[in-house]
Amino acid sequence: MCARFARGSWRYAAPPALVGLFLLPFSLAGAAVAFLSSGAALGFHRDPDRSPPADGLLAPADGRVSVVREEDGRLRLGVFMNLTDVHVNRAPLSGTVEAVTHSPGKHWPAFTKESDRNEKVHVEFEDYTLVLIAGAIARRIHPYVEPGESVERGQRIGHISFSSRVDVIMPEGVTRDDLSVEKGQKVTAGETRLVER
User: Fold this and answer.
1) Can you give the residue range of the structural domain that contains 83?
2) What is the pLDDT of residues 71-130, one digit of tens each?
3) How many structural domains is the chain composed of?
4) Chain centroid, CA 87 distance in Å
5) Residues 118 and 183 occupy one common structural domain
6) Could you tell me if 63 and 137 lie in one domain?
7) Is 161 a catalytic residue?
8) Residue 30, SS3?
9) Dihedral of CA 69/72/75/77: which sign?
10) Do 124 and 32 share a structural domain?
11) Which of 93, 59, 49, 51 is nearest to 79 (CA)?
């Protein structure tokens, strides 16, 4: 079975592979480093299949819960993705995309409070919003969905290249007491229930 990679991952893997081919006649060590860099870029952009459970509001990202706070009367939960996590993001619930909005900003480490001012993309649904946040290394957010598009729970909705964070602004009425996870807990995109519902 062929390995699956995030859309556009070859734009990161191809340049070092070409450098490796160029270096091959001149330096085996240099070519090896370049080929390893190409393989690492593909490994980072891996996109394994997931099996969503029958119900529940699902984690949008692989990583650790790093943010749980109330904001403007809604509960916000953030998942920090480090370099070893899968960076393909998934829809927590089924719904129709109402808007996809890019906001320019800084590139602070995604696990810090300052990352709230980072570059981000808001993907707004009827009942909730996903916020894809670029980190210190991540400089490219790649949404896969457009306004008016219907998505299913667990469907791929985008990816962020290199370490970053994805926040869910929960549907109205969801409180901390409804959460099935806690801060610091490891979660899996499209499989871990954040809220039983």
Assistant:
1) 57-195
2) 999 999 999 998 899 999 999 999 999 999 998 877 666 566 666 778 899 999 999 999
3) 2
4) 4
5) yes
6) yes
7) no
8) helix
9) negative
10) no
11) 59
Q: CATH number of the domain at 174, please.
A: 2.70.70
Asked whether the beta carbons of 108 and 135 are under 8 A apart, the reply is yes
Kindly state whether residue 178 falls inside one of the protein's structural domains.
yes
CB 166 within 8 A of CB 61: yes
pLDDT band at 1 (very low <50, low <70, confident <90, very high): very low
Residues 6 or more apart whose Cβ sits within 8 Å of residue 12: 41, 44, 45, 161
pLDDT digits (tens, 9 = 90+) for 14-37: 888 899 898 988 899 998 998 898
Catalytic residue among 9, 38, 164, 180: 164
- Looking at the fold, whether 68 and 161 belong to one and the same domain comes out as yes
Alpha-carbon distance 25 to 144, whole Å? 40
pLDDT in tens, 161-183: 876 899 999 999 999 999 999 99
Residue type for 109, please? Answer: P
Angle at 195 between CA 189 and CA 197, to 5 degrees: 115
**What is the DSSP code string of 75-126?**
EEEEEEE-TTS--EEE-SS-EEEEEEEEE--B---TTSGGGGGB-EEEEEES
